[in-house]
Predict the 3D structure of the following.
Amino acid sequence: MPAPEGILTLQTVAMPADTNSGGDIFGGWVVSQMDLAAGVTAQQRARGRCATVAIEALRFHAPVLVGDLFSVYTRIAKTGRTSITMHVEAWVRRQRTDEAFMVTEGDFTFVAIESSGVTRPLPPA
Ligand SMILES: CC(C)(COP(=O)(O)OP(=O)(O)OC[C@H]1O[C@@H](n2cnc3c(N)ncnc32)[C@H](O)[C@@H]1OP(=O)(O)O)[C@@H](O)C(=O)NCCC(=O)NCCS
C-alpha cells in the first residue's frame, strides 16, 4: 500500500466553489494549495519570507472531487545558497469509498528573500 512522502503540511476539504464546468476541482486550485503548503515549509526552513521561483515535474494523476479530504505533504529534497526545493504530494481521502490515493505531485523551489524582495542566504538548518 503506497504511503505519502513527507510531512502533512496542509489539509482542507474540496468545495463546490472550486469546480470546473465538468464538476471536478480545478487544477489551479490544486496547485495553489500545494504552493501554499510548500510556502509554509520553505518559510520554516528559511526562517522568514520566501518566494516561489519554479514549479517543475507537475503531474496530475487523478481528479479531485467535491467532498474529498485534501492533504498536502512536503519534503525538502535539496537546499542551495538561497533556495529550497521540495517534493510536494497532494493526496485525497474520498468520502464515499474511504479510499486514500495521491492525486498530484511536483517539485516546488522557493527562494529566501528580504522584505525588499532581494535574495538572502538560508540560515543554517
Ligand atoms: C525569486 C527571485 C527573487 C530570485 O531572484 P533571481 O535574481 O532570479 O535569483 P538568482 O538567479 O540569484 O537565483 C536564486 C536561487 O534560485 C534558484 N533558481 C532560480 N531560478 C530557478 C529555476 N527556474 N529553477 C530552480 N531554481 C532556480 C537559483 O539556482 C538560486 O539558488 P541558490 O542560491 O540556492 O544557488 C526572483 O526571480 C523573483 O522575484 N521572482 C518572482 C517570484 C514570485 O513573484 N513568485 C510568485 C509567483 S506568482
In short: The mean pLDDT is 97.
